[in-house]
Amino acid sequence: MPSHIDIYSHYHLESQDSIKAKAMSKQSANTQIITTLNHLKVGESAIVGHVSGQSHVASDAHSDLSDIARRLKELGFVQGEEVKILHKGYFGGEPLAVRIGQSTFALRNFEAALIGVTKISNTPLGPI
Questions:
Q1: Surface-to-core class of residue 62, CB atoms within 10 Å of its CB (0-12 exposed, 13-18 middle, 19+ buried)
Q2: In DSSP terms, which residues pair with 85 in a beta bridge?
Q3: I want to staple 49 with a disulfide (CB 3.0 to 4.6 A). Which of 30, 78, 101, 116 is the partner?
Q4: H or E segment and range at residue 65
Q5: Does position 13 have pLDDT exceeding 60, yes or no?
Q6: Where are the beta strands (DSSP E) in 55-114?
Q7: Chain centroid to CA 128
Q8: 45-66 residue pLDDT tens
Q9: What percent of the chain is helix, strand and coil (3-state, nearest 5)?
Q10: What does the CA dihedral 104, 108, 113, 119 come to, rounded to 10 degrees?
Q11: How far is the C-alpha of 120 from the C-alpha of 44, rounded, in Å?
Q12: 10 Å Cβ neighbour count for 55?
């Protein structure tokens, strides 16, 4: 006949295994892919992480990128906002039709490349 210790040990080991399994599944579910907006496919959603206006090129081009980054932020591409790729053009994938909030914008690939995002899912934002 098993003692209290044997029953407790068996139960304790089973519960530890289930806790580890739950932790592993949670960890894999929370795995996030960090990329830029121009690398997302049509229908994919992401959370904006940052908008970068920095470049390793001449100062005039850097100034232009800073202006574009500022404009993107003014349009609503700010950290924490959800964004979805609605459509990509046929030739070269330009322009990208992007929904953020209740607004839809057309972006060029180089503009979308300034927006760092964390891919979250392939689910729609809402009614389109």
A1: middle
A2: 98
A3: 116
A4: helix 59-75
A5: no
A6: 82-88, 96-100, 103-107
A7: 20
A8: 999 999 987 654 455 555 788 8
A9: 40, 25, 35
A10: 40
A11: 8
A12: 14
Mean pLDDT of all residues belonging to the chain: 76
pLDDT tens figures, 64-110: 888 999 999 999 999 999 999 999 998 888 999 999 999 999 999 99
* Token representation of residue 14: 């089973």
Tokens 């579910």 locate to 29
Longest dimension (CA), the chain: 83
Alpha-carbon dihedral sign for residues 76, 78, 80, 83: positive
Question: Any residues with CB less than 8 A from the CB of 35 and at least 6 apart, and which?
Answer: 46, 116, 117, 119
Q: How far is CA 5 from CA 9, 16, 114, in A?
A: 6, 16, 60
Angle CA 86–43–101, to nearest 5 = 55
Residue 120 has pLDDT above 70, yes or no: yes
